[in-house]
Design goal:
The protein is of the alpha+beta class. The chain is built from 12 helices and 7 strands. The radius of gyration is 29 Å and the shape is elongated. α4 runs parallel beside α6 and α9 packs across α10. It folds into 2 domains: about 230 residues, no CATH class; about 160 residues, Alpha-Beta Plaits. A 5-stranded mixed β-sheet has the order 2-3-1-6-7, sandwiched between helices.
Length: about 400
């Protein structure tokens, strides 16, 4: 197996979005996931505060009937676990915007949560502990931030395993039972009590996973439907891919009927993935908006002061943009030289764009109906092929099937 293939296989396993050339949907899914991870981190801070207050009040209540020395002996390891929570949540809080695409880290933080709660369960009475209910919170978090519905079930299984290790470990005498005040001793060695209680806990955890998976699945499906119903890309303000494809089909029908040409221009930002890695996704978003405005202005100048309704500038995917040139400023179909001039104007306009003195260039491909194709797919295939030729030649240039501009 080649190193490149192995790298891609590992990326599929460990990244939320693994493709080298991410589409618009990949990037938006990644950003949505990053925001969800950030929300979970903030919720964890709130849980830390609530748990701290509860622990202080519980310790004060137990101190009425239990010597402080005994309480402190039981609290040392949970206190260490609490410090661990603070440490890894601080780490995620500082890095989640840069590392949010590494899905294995999202899994890891939930597993850390479950392990910490398992420590609390053991040191607060094992089978008698109330803290097991916190596992349900982490199952909900898993359904919220992990990409697949079955991940919630996997989290529920991991929590059940951790809880079972404590409960059955105590029952079989593999680990010593931690005695707590106000609890009937020896019940942790009663098979009926342990089995019935663990069965109820499994039922609750499984029910939580089912409800969480169904609810988050319904929410994400609705979000996808709303996104597909929109015709405007919310990151750039341009038309989106769906509208572009519908508009192109409409223009090709009109062009075939009236026997005139239509040009398609594809423009892809050179090495945008590296730009995002260097400057961050937020700056990349600002750059995308500026590039979109530059392209719109360039096409507007080619259309004598205003983009005609038949000329469409859209965000086609990730860092790729698509343009339909159906009419020039005189209302007639643009010739191939007109299309190449418009593409060169787009290329030159983007080359002037920068955010905090950091700019990019674009590779551009041009295809024209009917010479280069009779259907939308044929035109886009040709435009994409010559765009790839532009990029392979170093980028920042315009290519056509027959000419290089």
């Amino acid at each position: 197996m080649s190193p490149n293939r192995l790298t891609k296989i590992l990326a599929r396993r460990f990244m939320v979005s693994w493709r080298e050339q991410k589409t618009r949907y990949d990037i938006e899914a990644l950003q949505a996931n990053t925001e969800r991870v950030g929300l979970v981190i903030r919720v964890r801070w709130a849980l830390v505060v609530v748990l701290s207050l509860y622990s202080a009040l519980a310790a004060w209540a137990y101190a009425i009937d239990t010597p402080w020395a005994e309480l402190w002996a039981n609290m040392q390891v949970p206190a260490g676990a609490f410090v661990f929570v603070l440490a890894y949540n601080l780490f995620y809080w500082r890095t989640y915007r840069r590392l949010g695409n590494i899905s294995v880290l999202n899994h890891a933080q939930l597993m850390f949560d479950a392990i910490v709660v398992t420590v609390l369960v053991y040191y607060s009475g094992g089978v008698h502990s109330w803290f097991w209910a916190m596992y349900s919170l982490f199952i909900l978090e898993a359904a919220f931030i992990l990409p697949r519905r079955w991940h919630a079930w996997m989290m529920a299984a991991f929590c059940a395993l951790c809880l079972g290790l404590v409960i059955w470990g105590e029952y079989f005498g593999l680990i010593p039972h931690v005695e707590m005040p106000f609890i009937a001793e020896e019940l942790h060695r009663n098979l009926t009590f342990v089995a019935v209680r663990y069965g109820w806990q499994l039922t609750v955890l499984g029910g939580t996973a089912t409800v969480a998976a169904l609810m988050t699945g319904a929410i994400r499906k609705r979000e996808a439907e709303l996104a597909s119903a929109s015709i405007v890309d919310d990151k750039t303000g341009l038309y989106d891919r769906g509208y572009f494809l519908r508009a192109l089909s409409r223009e090709l029908l009109r062009a075939e009927r009236d026997e005139h040409g239509v040009a398609v221009i594809l423009a892809d930002i050179d090495e945008f993935d590296r730009y995002n890695k260097m400057f961050g996704i937020d700056q990349g978003d600002r750059l995308l908006r500026k590039v979109a405005r530059a392209m719109s202005d360039a096409v507007a100048e080619c259309s004598a002061g205003g983009i005609r309704e038949t000329n469409v500038v859209s965000r086609f995917g990730g860092e790729e943009f698509a343009i339909i040139l159906a009419e020039d400023c005189k209302g007639v179909a643009p010739s191939l030289p007109d299309a190449l001039r418009a593409a060169e104007a787009v290329r030159a306009a983007v080359a002037q764009v920068s955010v905090d003195d950091a700019g990019v260039t674009v590779s551009v491909g041009v295809a024209r109906f009917p010479e280069d194709g009779m259907t939308s797919d044929q035109l886009l295939d040709v435009a994409d092929a010559v765009l790839t030729r532009s990029a392979s030649a170093g980028g920042n240039r315009v290519s056509h099937a027959e000419n290089d501009a």
